[in-house]
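Incident log, support desk, overnight shift.

02:14 A customer reports that sequence design results differ from what the structure should imply. Their input is reproduced verbatim below. On-call engineer (initials T.W.) acknowledged and began investigating.
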């Protein structure tokens, strides 16, 4: 879910996938004590059983009181859509644990969410901390670094085994001292979403296996295919949606990105950044990109109007495309493997030490990120699991997406996730990424800004932010 969760996300995923509301629990007449709990929930300002009426209210009908007449409220703080409500997981957990009431506080702005979370963890104000707080992968290095002492080590929590996750996923949430401060939720492995009809009109193959072979092994081949597309492109279309999206995809496949293993910014000398920048600039200056900023209003409109032949597509991006392309795009889009494996997006669940119910929160976080639950979230929203057993499950391996011409999305994305090369993540990576993909490359593609001038503006901005 990008900050799109993304990975959008997204994805996003992530950001990226559209919200759906989980069905309310049905059944016979409510017991008197359950009705008391429902009235109490209503007093908080949200209509009972209205799952989407208030982001911080009960996400499903609270269950009966415990035999001791008490309930524990666990608040889950998220950004974007994590799919727990959509998959009915909160209601399922409360049915199994009558003493627990789960509420969710969700926001769509991941940067605002992170600012509030860091302020709360460091005692500098912000919104009250939730018992469970999601952390986007772009910020996980801060959670394992300067904020690690504010978060619970979850490796001893019941049901938690670091080996349950993809090795690179659990490694991202492990501190230098060996503490596991985050439990992996989804991932954002790469593929390429493409318009079959536009490829056919441009004289290119449209079968997904043939399309994948066009650029297999190297992102530079992807740009070469773009040049072939442009030579016969249908009117008012570009080969790919944005230079920034291409930059993120190419960089995600590189072993060294913005920071080194010590968390130090090395983007100015990084071979991975140079490769991604050069390819993206080449595509932008050749007219292969739209010149639009991803996820902005103009980008949304262009997607609806069939303006893009391809979109580099982490798993959460499928939800973004189906949402904004709408019914008119159904069946015209397809998915092919990316030139090289990479990951864009994903998140973790953490438990702040300041919480009143750390043990219970850890148990809930472990259950929500267990393989069985990750598979259910994938079925409901398309957020790809990070747990190995979930990726290998029949629910994932046999999954297809009707919107994308019944593409075998489960297999395509699971195969990509297994081959992702881990790369160091630094505290300032998100800021550098935004400066490059959302500003500098947009200037190059849309305004014809000289690439050297655009790059110098990035360096100046990051230098000012870091004070170095």
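02:41 Re-run completed on a clean worker. Output:
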């Amino acid at each position: 879910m990008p900050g799109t969760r993304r990975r959008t996300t997204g994805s996003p995923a992530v950001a990226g996938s559209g919200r759906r509301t989980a069905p309310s629990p049905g059944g016979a007449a409510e017991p008197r004590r359950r009705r008391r709990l429902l009235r109490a929930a209503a007093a908080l300002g949200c209509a009972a059983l209205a799952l989407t009426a208030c982001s911080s209210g009960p996400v499903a009908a609270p269950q009966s009181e415990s035999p001791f007449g008490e309930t524990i409220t666990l608040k889950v703080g998220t950004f974007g859509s994590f799919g727990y409500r959509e998959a009915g997981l909160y209601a399922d957990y409360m049915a199994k644990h009558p003493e627990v009431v789960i509420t969710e506080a969700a926001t769509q702005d991941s940067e605002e969410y992170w600012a509030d979370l860091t302020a709360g963890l460091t005692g500098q104000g912000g919104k009250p901390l939730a018992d469970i707080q999601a952390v986007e992968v772009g910020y996980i290095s801060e959670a394992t670094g300067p904020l690690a002492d504010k978060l619970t080590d979850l490796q001893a929590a019941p049901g938690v085994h670091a080996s349950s996750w993809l090795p690179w996923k659990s490694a991202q949430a492990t501190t230098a001292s060996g503490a596991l401060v985050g439990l992996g939720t989804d991932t954002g492995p790469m593929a390429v979403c493409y318009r079959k009809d536009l490829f056919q009109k441009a004289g290119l193959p449209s079968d997904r296996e043939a399309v994948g072979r066009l650029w297999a092994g190297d992102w530079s081949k992807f740009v070469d295919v773009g040049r072939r597309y442009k030579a016969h492109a249908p009117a008012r279309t570009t080969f790919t949606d944005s230079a920034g999206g291409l930059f993120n995809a190419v960089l995600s496949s590189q072993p060294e990105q913005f920071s080194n293993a010590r968390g130090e910014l090395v983007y100015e000398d990084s071979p991975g950044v140079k490769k991604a920048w050069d390819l993206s600039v080449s595509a932008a200056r050749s007219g292969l990109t739209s010149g639009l900023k991803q996820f902005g209003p103009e980008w949304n409109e262009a997607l609806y109007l069939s303006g893009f032949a391809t979109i580099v597509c982490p798993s959460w991006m499928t939800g973004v495309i189906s949402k904004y392309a709408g019914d008119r795009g159904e069946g015209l889009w397809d998915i092919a493997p990316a030139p090289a494996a990479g990951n864009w997006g994903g998140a973790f669940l953490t438990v702040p030490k300041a919480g009143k119910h750390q043990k219970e929160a850890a148990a809930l976080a472990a259950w929500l990120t267990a393989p069985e639950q990750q598979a259910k979230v994938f079925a409901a929203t398309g957020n790809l699991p990070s747990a190995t057993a979930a990726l290998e499950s029949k629910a994932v391996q046999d999954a297809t997406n009707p919107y994308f011409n019944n593409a075998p999305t489960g297999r395509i994305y699971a195969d990509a996730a297994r081959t992702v090369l881990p790369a160091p993540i630094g505290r300032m990576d998100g800021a550098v990424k935004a400066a490059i993909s959302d500003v500098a490359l947009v200037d190059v593609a849309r305004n014809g800004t000289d690439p050297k001038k655009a790059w110098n503006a990035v360096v100046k901005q990051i230098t000012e932010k870091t004070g170095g």
